[in-house]
Amino acid sequence: MLKRFFRVETDLFTIGILFEVILFSIIYFGIGYFYNKTDPFLIKQEINFLLIFLLTLTLFYGLAIGLLIIFLFAVFMYYYYHPFPIYYFLENLVVVLIAGEFNFFYKKSFKRLKEENKYIESKINQLRNAFYSLKLSHDQLEKSYILKPVSLRAILYDIKNLTLQNEKEAAEEVMKIIVKLFDVKQALFLKDNQILAYIGEKFSINQDDEMIKTAIEEKRAVYIAENINKEELGEEYLAVIPAINMENEITGLFIIKEMPFLNFNKENIMVISIIISLFADFLTYKKSVEKYRDISLCEPEFMYEVDRLTKLQKDFGIETHLVMFKYYEKFNIDKEEFFEFIENNIRTVDMVCKQGDIAIVLLPFVPLSGAKAFQERMKEKLYQELNIELFYSKIIKLEEKNINKIWKY
User: Fold this and answer.
1) Where is the signal peptide (predicted)?
2) Is the pTM of this model over 0.70?
């Protein structure tokens, strides 16, 4: 309880917030002093104005600010009031503590919901990117690869695997795709302010360019064709596309300097943005995969989601569970059909990792009761549709302390 009451966030003690609080306090004291010099804190009025003031500050800024102001006022009250109104002070102090508790739970709930929405939004972005990559596979790319027919999804899958080994070579492959699709003549990809890959000749980057600033600040592609006032933004680059991963973080910048006029349009810029965003996801996947490289054989996407959901559980207590199913040779279907059946009966946000005879289903934001319901539903479906009686299934809570043990079952 005390830890929660005296939890102080560093951002509360910025100069701006302190200035606001002190200014409000001076205004309150000034009004009270002007109204009644013998009762500047208005504690003798029928309405407890001081309580309303303290309650407002505590609910808005948190317990730390509420305690700071009430004890600061207590020092001045000791000078203006004789005897010191100890019961009045304690009454207000208790209300401040209660308001601080409410503020704590409100912020905690707000952050929790914010992180849940952020995760769901990232999954939507992932599905959007998958949709566009599929669309491209059947449209532009198939036309470009007449002599060597291959889908964009297959190429991106190879690039994803290459990213785990050498991200520079992977970036160069992404550049080749963009050149073949849109005939870009000169461009480069920046990561950590360093050139990771480029098309044509290298060129210097002006960090103060308005297009670069706008792309970073607004996290969107900025291109010269959309700007009516070209002189204001400058014409040094044709387009600046931020590499935004599923967590809405910028992992790099793709800057186009030269591109054929006929290919330079809004639709193509959007498609390039999708490709760059997919590559940004690959770069982010790499961190998670390297973290669990020695303990897991799962796909990068699966480990990436495990890493994210583990952090959400640790920071906000958002529960996630895994359900394991084991295949036996005595089943009347083969293993691939068994795994495919499981994959076809999960939600869009759920994921499956297959290792040997084990299928591990990741259920984001699902509590223990939901995991048990899913387990029973799968058992029932397997029995009704495939006449399989499941002999082994286990539910595991996703936590940082047991993440290394999951792959040993």
Assistant:
1) none
2) no
